[in-house]
Design goal:
Keywords: Disulfide bond, FAD, Flavoprotein, NAD, NADP, Nucleotide-binding, Oxidoreductase, Redox-active center
Strand content: 15-25%
Bound molecules: flavin-adenine dinucleotide, nicotinamide-adenine-dinucleotide
Shape: globular
EC number: 1.8.1.15
CATH superfamily of the largest domain: FAD/NAD(P)-binding domain
CATH class of the largest domain: Alpha Beta
Largest sheet: 7 strands, mixed
Family: Belongs to the class-I pyridine nucleotide-disulfide oxidoreductase family.
Structural class: alpha/beta
Distance between the termini: 65 Å
Radius of gyration: 24 Å
CATH topology of the largest domain: FAD/NAD(P)-binding domain
Helix content: 25-40%
Protein name: Mycothione reductase
InterPro entries: FAD/NAD-bd_sf, FAD/NAD-binding_dom, FAD/NAD-linked_Rdtase_dimer_sf, Pyr_nuc-diS_OxRdtase, Pyr_nucl-diS_OxRdtase_dimer, Pyr_OxRdtase_I_AS
């Protein structure tokens, strides 16, 4: 049986572990899908490459109130799609070729699973390794709906009707779909609703709960839901009950409120499940929690001493910057097991790249109150700062939650232009323990930049 020093399962963030520091180790890299993983091929990167043109395409919706009449003349979907994937596919292929020619790396292009604590099977071969890193990511979940076969996204993928999509496939459709039904109200639903609505598709969102982005601070979720409802047909408290394929290959979607919708594309944006269940983890002594995430200690070590895990397979944030952070920790701990580092999950930020953008870090107001903090909350409208006047903004805001007395920032939530950028100084303040008043008063804030939103929100806190 062939033996390796290290086996890495998953070529997304797992691939970034391999560099010259591992040149003296034999490495097996196992990848069943597109080389480079979710973020590069079907996640963060291509979605944002669609979001940016969508931001441009939706400019006419925002510009008329400022006296600038714009029209969206044409959206060249095949051109946009091919520009994006010509670039991405080349990176994926180049990365795979680069790995394949590395003398110390053996690439297994197959679905693999553990056969014992130190043994693994992939591509008809069984091999052993001293140490393993599980970086197997997560996969889209498709809920049970009459007329929808979950095997369309697995073994029976050839039978999948043209209308049935997850985020893995929807960016590669031949044409811009005229009618899109999106199921779900989280990150993926919000971003693709923006893309398709901006490009001119007729979009219907069916969201099971009473609003979108329900994990966010309640005021943000409510405001975002109102905003999205102005752009698309938003059905809250509604799920699809049955989907039938029509003679022309499109979908007829029956919904729980009795409504019926025709669609060229139905996008299931209903969450992602960690891939640990595909790896026969009990054979290796690796435990998972009730939601299927691989259990790790602060050093990213699993319940088996010689096996580490990182990314979506073991953390519920399911974000690339968290996977990257954990990969750096695992890398250090593989090289320096006697001086292990811990992951820092104290202040994990996130952003939803929709229209409007949403970004957040830390506790929501409700979570802070439930945790028993004595809090002060400030809500600052974009329209109250000079740059917001320039934009005639009457919708967007920032909200900061801080501890009364200490001024410690517990959470920050922003909905509006550049929210994903404006949140960064607040992440920094929380990470380095900078109290709100000191942060507001101890530095210059450029006038009249959008960051005055953060300055004024900090000053408005009753610390
Ligand atoms: C549409 C979309 C948009 C996103 N946008 C953002 C964003 O803007 N910002 C952000 O921070 N995050 C975003 N994410 C999340 C981000 O993509 C993931 O958190 C990140 O890619 C996870 O990295 P990973 O290395 O854990 O897993 P992955 O990159 O998924 O890598 C896991 C790899 O393991 C392989 N694999 C799994 N099981 C096996 C097996 N049994 N045998 C062999 N190989 C296997 C898979 O094929 C896959 O290539 C987005 C996700 C999606 C779906
Ligand atoms: N900008 C970003 O960082 C970004 C963008 C896209 C995706 N992601 C990552 O990908 C993950 C997956 O995104 P997502 O939007 O699919 O998941 P999500 O968890 O954000 O949202 C899932 C949505 O589906 C709904 N839902 C779940 N089960 C359902 C069912 N049976 N019937 C009807 N509705 C159901 C939920 O109520 C929720 O509205 C996210 O958790 C996120 O970590 C991140």
């Amino acid at each position: 049986m062939r033996h390796f020093d290290l086996c890495i399962i998953g070529s997304g963030s797992g691939n970034s572990l391999i560099d010259e520091q591992l040149d003296d180790q034999s490495v097996a890299l196992v990848e069943k899908g597109i080389f480079g993983g979710t973020c590069l091929n079907v996640g963060c990167i291509p979605t944002k490459m669609f979001v940016h043109p969508a931001d441009l395409a939706s400019a006419p919706e925002r510009s008329a109130r400022l006296g600038v009449q714009l029209t969206r003349d044409k959206v060249d979907w095949p051109g946009i799609r091919d520009r994006i994937f010509t670039r991405i596919d080349a990176i994926s292929e180049g990365g795979e070729d680069w790995r394949a020619q590395a003398p110390n790396v053996t690439l297994y292009r197959a679905k693999g699973h553990f056969t014992g604590p130190h043994t693994f099977a992939a591509g008809g071969e069984e091999f052993s390794a001293d140490r393993f890193v599980i970086a197997a990511g997560s996969r889209a979940v498709v809920p049970p709906v009459a007329g929808v076969d979950p095997q369309w996204w697995d073994e029976r993928r050839d039978e999948r009707p043209a209308w049935a999509h997850t985020s893995d496939t929807v960016m590669r459709t031949d044409d811009l779909p005229g009618r899109v039904v999106i199921v779900g109200g989280g990150y993926v639903a919000s971003e693709f609703a923006h893309v398709f609505a901006s490009f001119g598709s007729d979009v219907t969102i069916m969201v099971r709960s009473q609003g979108m982005l329900r994990e966010q601070d309640a005021e943000i979720s409510e405001a975002f839901t109102r905003s999205m409802a102005r752009r698309v047909r938003l059905l809250t408290g509604v799920v699809p009950t049955e989907i039938a394929t029509e003679g022309d290959g499109t979908a007829r979607v029956l919904a729980s409120d009795g409504s019926e919708h025709r669609a060229d594309v139905v996008l299931f944006a209903t969450g992602r499940r960690p891939n640990g269940d595909t790896l026969n983890l009990p054979a290796a002594g690796v435990e998972t929690d009730r939601e299927g995430y691989v259990v790790v200690d602060p050093h990213q070590r699993t319940t088996a001493e010689h096996i580490w895990a990182l990314g979506d397979v073991c953390n519920p944030w399911q974000l690339k910057h968290v996977a990257n952070h954990e990969a750096k920790v695992v890398k250090h701990n593989l090289l320096h097991p006697e001086q292990p580092r811990s992951s820092d999950h104290r202040f994990v930020p996130y952003a939803v790249f929709s229209e409007p953008q949403v970004a957040a870090v830390g506790l929501t107001e409700h979570q802070a109150r439930a945790a028993g903090y004595d809090i002060t909350v400030a809500k600052q409208d974009y329209g109250s700062i000079a740059y917001g006047w320039a934009m005639e903004d009457d919708e967007h805001f920032a909200k900061i939650v801080a501890e009364r007395g200490t001024g410690r920032i517990l959470g920050a939530h922003i909905m509006g232009p550049e929210a994903s950028v404006l949140i960064q100084p607040l992440i920094q303040a929380m990470s380095f323990g900078l109290p709100a008043a000191e942060m507001a008063r101890g530095q210059y804030w450029i006038h009249p930049a959008m960051t005055e939103l953060v300055e004024n929100a900090l000053l408005a806190l009753d610390v």
